[in-house]
Write a structure and sequence with these properties.
heterodimer; A: 226 residues; alpha/beta; four-stranded antiparallel β-sheet; B: 420 residues; alpha+beta; five-stranded mixed β-sheet; 17% strand
Chain lengths: 226, 420
């Protein structure tokens, strides 16, 4: 899956981190820092996804989304915003954004969201996410190991998708907590719940005949991969 | 005490004192005047009696005189006493009890006889006069007080009405609402000055408030971007395969501090939002449904800690609250009950009646002052807690007038919101 995205973010340091992180995961990311640059670049390429910061120095990300929608571009749209109000979110979604991520976010979270949107756009959600012997039918949220279905809970399923989206990356406990429990991430971090869910997932995967891909990275978190 | 009452009290008491003193004075003056006149009368009577004695009018004729009573006693010799004006009381005269009369007593020698003569002036009733004066005084005092009350009330109704309107306008002034304060137009100079000062002050406060608010909002948002940068850099660093465990540890510690800052910022923004309370459209929220809905969100954590949740809920209870605030309220209460519970096998009891919503959870005894539980940044030795959750709960309760009470008894922490 060769994915190219346009990143419209005026904070160069943040932009640089995102580009680097996504690039390691095989996503080509083209950074622009202003509204006008974004408008100029939009027609250069058929992007799979455009990541837009709302507060740009020469315009609003919301206007950019309206512009993209007017031009009937197919790209998935993710807003990254420092503002976390309901009104901002509503405005973003009604203008046509597919997702809304509040700053600061984990790079792994952004990566997972981009992957999810790109999959949805490309395959109408009917795509199968494959990782060696594991295949996940995203449409009906089922997981198969070597064609054998295994039963995962909702959270275990989300965890597996998150791991595969960020495979070979070190994922912190915080990032997992946020991805699965959003506003209650703090509660997750202060309890053993992440450990419990990962333990259960690993057990089910291994019992289902998959290799144990989950590696604990001491003091940091986990890494999914061989 | 109202201004009106104070004014009436002062006016009335001063007038009463003055009236009392004035009454006393006029009473004295009148009585003295009457006394003087009656003595003059007695003196002229004395001359008349002397005349008649000289003309050898019989004593019995003199004593039967209609008008003043005259007593004449023959005495052997003149004692040389000077004529004496005196007051005698009724027992000496055989008249009504409790009355006294002016009298003159003198000696006189006529036709070789010595007499002691007492003339008692009838019908000069000082006390009755006093009573009359007192009565008149009381009536006029009452009229005076009545007049003072009426005049004051009138003055208040008329003169001070702008003042009360200003007061009302000030009371309904809400700094977080942008509309300017509306003060009544008046033609009294003082009130106009007051109006101008209040308007200026309110405008300044409003301006300051909104610029401060804007600053706070902007600051809290501006903070997010550098935090995002720090977080992303830490995350990039963590991907480095050559990282030593010590370095990884340092980075994780930095990352945790950033996360704390992020949550703190979020909590403060929520509090600020509640403080402003601008978009408050309360509607009826069913407590049972909302609680079930929110408990569902925490199901994972409740299971993880193996917490036994028991509910005794009156399903018909509704509260008037902004729905999104109700989510914040119940989330914080449930989160609190889960977080500060035992690590395994704790309990949560939820009780809802028409009067109160009570959430209690097992947990270790609080080590410190529980009065401060609802204050911002207050934490009970729990480093993972920011100390904003209960402050947010309290703020919401304040907005809707719920009384909130914390209690710890026999292993249970309880938080009760009195909703009626």
């Amino acid at each position: 899956m060769n994915t190219t995205i346009l990143l419209v973010e005026d904070e160069k340091q943040l932009s640089q981190s995102i580009v680097q992180y996504l690039d390691n995961g095989g996503i080509t990311c083209i950074p622009v820092y202003t509204y006008n640059a974004a408008v100029n670049k939009i027609h250069d390429f058929e992007y799979d996804c455009i990541v837009i910061d709302i507060g740009l120095p020469d315009g609003s990300g919301i206007d950019l989304i309206a512009y993209i929608k007017k031009k009937k571009l197919e790209a998935g749209l993710i807003i990254i915003s420092a503002r976390n109000s309901l009104e901002d979110k509503l405005e973003g979604f009604t203008t046509g954004a597919d997702d809304f991520l509040v700053k600061p976010f984990h790079l792994s979270e952004l990566n997972a969201r981009i992957n999810a949107i790109v999959r949805r756009k490309k395959f109408d959600g009917k795509e199968t996410l494959e990782y060696n012997e594991i295949s996940i039918k995203l449409e009906n949220r089922t997981v198969f190991i070597k064609e054998k279905k295994i039963n995962l809970t909702k959270k275990e399923f989300e965890l597996l998708v998150y791991f595969i989206s960020n495979n070979n990356k070190i994922i912190t406990k915080d990032a997992i907590a946020y991805s699965l429990w959003k506003n209650n991430a703090d509660l997750a971090i202060s309890s053993d719940i992440i450990y419990t869910h990962i333990k259960n997932l690993r057990k089910k995967m291994v019992e289902g005949g998959a290799k144990d891909y989950v590696n604990a990275v001491y003091g940091i978190g986990y890494k999914f991969g061989e | 005490m109202k201004l009106l009452h104070k004014n009436i009290l002062v006016n009335a008491s001063v007038s009463l004192i003055i009236m009392f003193l004035g009454g006393l004075l006029s009473y004295q003056l009148i009585v003295n005047k009457i006394k003087g006149e009656s003595y003059e009368h007695l003196l002229s009577e004395k001359v008349l009696v002397e005349q008649k004695l000289k003309n050898a009018t019989p004593v019995s004729v003199l004593e039967n005189n209609i008008g003043d009573r005259i007593k004449i006693k023959e005495i052997p010799n003149l004692t040389g006493k000077k004529p004496k004006l005196k007051t005698i009381n009724s027992t000496q005269t055989g008249y009504e009890e409790g009355e006294s009369f002016s009298a003159i007593e003198f000696e006189y020698e006529a036709n070789q006889k010595s007499y002691q003569v007492t003339i008692i002036k009838m019908f000069d009733n000082d006390e009755e006069l006093g009573e009359n004066i007192l009565f008149a005084e009381i009536i006029s005092a009452m009229l005076m007080v009545g007049a003072i009350v009426l005049v004051n009330i009138f003055i208040y109704k008329k003169l001070w009405s702008p003042f009360y309107k200003i007061l009302k306008a000030l009371q309904s002034f809400n700094i977080s609402k942008q509309d300017a304060i509306k003060l009544p137009a008046t033609n009294t100079e003082e009130f106009n000055r007051l109006n101008r000062s209040i308007t200026l002050m309110a405008e300044k406060i409003s301006r300051d408030y909104f610029s401060l608010k804007e600053f706070t909002e902007n600051a809290s948002h501006e903070i997010q971007t550098p935090l995002a940068v720090i977080n992303s850099k830490i995350e990039m660093c963590l991907q480095d395969e050559h990282l030593t465990p010590e370095q990884a540890n340092l980075l994780m510690e930095a990352s945790q501090a950033v996360n704390t800052l992020v949550s703190l910022n979020k909590g403060l923004v929520t509090l600020a939002k509640l403080d402003n309370n601008q978009v408050d459209i309360p509607s009826d929220v069913n407590v049972y449904e909302k609680l079930l809905d929110r408990l569902n969100v925490y199901e994972d954590f409740i299971q993880e800690k193996d917490i036994d949740v028991r509910m005794k809920i009156d399903k018909t209870v509704n509260i008037k609250i902004n729905p999104s605030f109700s989510v914040i309220l119940f989330d914080n209460l449930i989160k609190n009950a889960v977080k500060h519970n035992y690590n395994q096998g704790g309990k949560i009891n939820i009780e809802v009646t028409k009067e109160f919503i009570k959430i209690e959870n097992t947990g270790t005894k609080p080590k410190v002052n529980t009065d401060k539980f609802f204050e911002r940044f207050y934490k009970d030795s729990n480093k993972e807690s920011l100390g904003l959750g209960l402050a947010i709960v309290k703020k919401i309760c304040e907005i809707y007038g719920f009384k909130i009470v914390y209690n710890y008894a026999s292993d249970f922490h309880s938080i009760t919101l009195y909703i009626s």
